[in-house]
Amino acid sequence: MSVCTGCGPGFRSPLEAMKGPREQIVYLPCIYRNTPILKPDYLATVDVQPDSPTYCQVIHRLPMPNLRDELHHSGWNACSSCYGDASKSRNRLILPSLISSRIYVIDVGTDPRAPKIHKMVEPVDLYYKCGLANPHTSHCLGSGQIMISCMGEPGGNGKGGFVLLDGETFEVVGNWEHSGEAAPFGYDFWYQPRHNVMISTEWGAPKALLDGFNPAHVQAGQYGSSLHVWDWATHRKLQTIELGPEGAIPLEVRFLHNPNATEGYVGCALRGTVFRFYKMPKGDWTAEKVISVPPKKVEGWMLPEMPGLITDILISLDDRFLYFSNWLHGDIRQYDITDRRKPRLVGQVFLGGSIVDDGPIRVSEDLENQPQPRPRIIKGKRVPGGPQMLQLSLDGRRLYVTTSLYSGWDKQFYPDMIREGSVMMQIDVDSDGGGLTLNEDFLVDFGKEPEGPALAHEVRYPGGDCTSDIWV
User: Fold this and answer.
1) What is the distance, to the nearest Å, from the Cα of residue 31 to the centroid of all Cα atoms in its chain?
2) By CB atoms within 10 Å of each CB, which of 192, 300, 321, 389 scores lowest?
3) Domain 14-456 is classified in which CATH homologous superfamily?
4) Helix (H) or strand (E) segment spanning residue 275
């Protein structure tokens, strides 16, 4: 936490956050849905302090009271958007369940190293009060409320609306968007109050992606390819930016951290592209493709071409570097974005993936002329799956990586990860000139969990991080 008197949670600015304390523990949701283990998902607390006797170990597990929730992403009851409010404290982790539509509120304030459940919001509250289901991204608001994007309606069809929770009682208040204005699909969102704007993205209809990916569902219109622009003050949907086939399945959206910025980036999974979105002189918004990872022609796979499948992106707090993961190709890339329209590749590292050179898939043509990577082995453990969720340290020098995307897709693309569990790795970052190097001494192996191999997903720091904090 920032050291001052009378201030609220988080940090005064993104650059102040970069001077914040080094992370000592992290929280990760661990999933058993779609594995052979019939146990509840749980929240793991992992020690990441190098001089600790329990370094790289899970030091606490908080099981949920239900089965098959599919814990996924998490957020906070309060963050840097509440920095000016001394009555607020970042002491509750908001933990939505992607499939059960249940929302857990976790007490991380009483004992940060041993969280406990504070409250549960049952699915019926989302269904009947909001007509929404499949909650995904949670952000705290400067008002003190909590806003959660949803991907569907209770029947499994796509519906991109937003649930508001009361920041004190955590009761469902209602919808953020106006009646009839929900987007066709939902997924992620980010808001920038100084410009009175919010932008949301699209994954697909929950019933289509429930147990795996079928390319025919893309052709059938079950997956999204648009950004939605919202008026932050009036909650009206102002504009839909259609990205086209090149922008199919736009997932994580990141504004630049500078609250004065009128631009950001979105990673589009299906074609391996990154689009820059930005405000036009007349006040409307548009987007342009600025990065493209070419697919590789392959033999021995489900399709003749394999996309990189960009599944997570983030921006360093000083807005200098963009990072993303290619879950199928198996690499993480670092781009210098000081020229916002022309990102420059400055770092790359392979961590598993589908095209390792001793696997069943042969690359027959690669426009980037890269050799098939060697399997990645860390401390004797072969990394199953590919790099997926990313979290950057506040100072920008350490990148944490997990390998599970979503249990239904893990099971389809990386069945070895279902059997062996996912892993968490750490990349050392050259935050001066650029460059990525695997830390060979860091590994958290979720294949060795007491109840059996688990799928660990998103990484969150107790004091906030570059994917949960928004400055107003």
Assistant:
1) 15
2) 300
3) YVTN repeat-like/Quinoprotein amine dehydrogenase (2.130.10.10)
4) strand 273-279
